[in-house]
Amino acid sequence: xxxxxxxxxxxxxxxxxxxxxxxxxxxxxxxxxxxxxxxxxxxxxxxxxxxxxxxxxxxxxxxxxxxxxxxxxxxxxxxxxxxxxxxxxxxxxxxxxxxxxxxxxxxxxxxxxxxxxxxxxxxxxxxxxxxxxxxxxxxxxxxxxxxxxxxxxxxxxxxxxxxxxxxxxxxxxxxxxxxxxxxxxxxxxxxxxxxxxxxxxxxxxxxxxxxxxxxxxxxxxxxxxxxxxxxxxxxxxxxxxxxxxxxxxxxxxxxxxxxxxxxxxxxxxxxxxxxxxxxxxxxxxxxxxxxxxxxxxxxxxxxxxxxxxxxxxxxxxxxxxxx
Length: 323
Known about the structure:
The protein has about 325 residues and is an alpha+beta fold. The chain has eleven helices and eleven strands.
């Protein structure tokens, strides 16, 4: 019995009971331990606003009738992350073509539909009411299976990698470490034997990939986390600088609720502006995120980043001054 089933069973038990239900009976009906029963009760109180009270004299739990009408579980009570995960999984499964995993995935599809149906809303109905939109996504490419095989088997890869900045293709031998799905696109985090360092490769830019018999060089998890998580976005590395941005009061209402970096620091000024500070390594992606706010943001520091933004804005203005 899972958490979902236990919540419904406890709700049914308390709704039908004429007297407070002892904890021992709850544990028996829910087929769980005392600790689990307490967690289910607290979850219902906290997330589902269930008016569950405890009567010391009768040593049992009950729904408080003073809270008004008979309490009922809400029709749909996913939190935001659960709903996103559920519908994302559903959409991904719908797009899987018949093949090797068809039989194995069928029970999962059925389970998702049953879960939605149990809450009074069919899978199709919910997917029509909640949309998950993906922006600027690029196909992972034909090399995805080869790359994922190398990752699983811990083998080196020989890849042809197209570098958009230079418009050139280079040959690399890499040791795959992780696949990362970021902003609706796939990336390979790997040890590059050519550069002798950790690098990130966009899968859609890998034009060819060949498995090598050599065992991949393994980088420990702590080193990977430090390298790829320390700085801003997918263009990670050692965070050598701190960005200091100031947003217009109107735009601040949105930005103040955004997470740009796990170590960010933000504050409102007396003028209503919002100032945001966070560490970063490379500037490419950060520049794009700053420029999308146009005149609603100003880079206060460092000077090099401020210059980069100024140059980009000057070039953009020059485009519109052309006759």
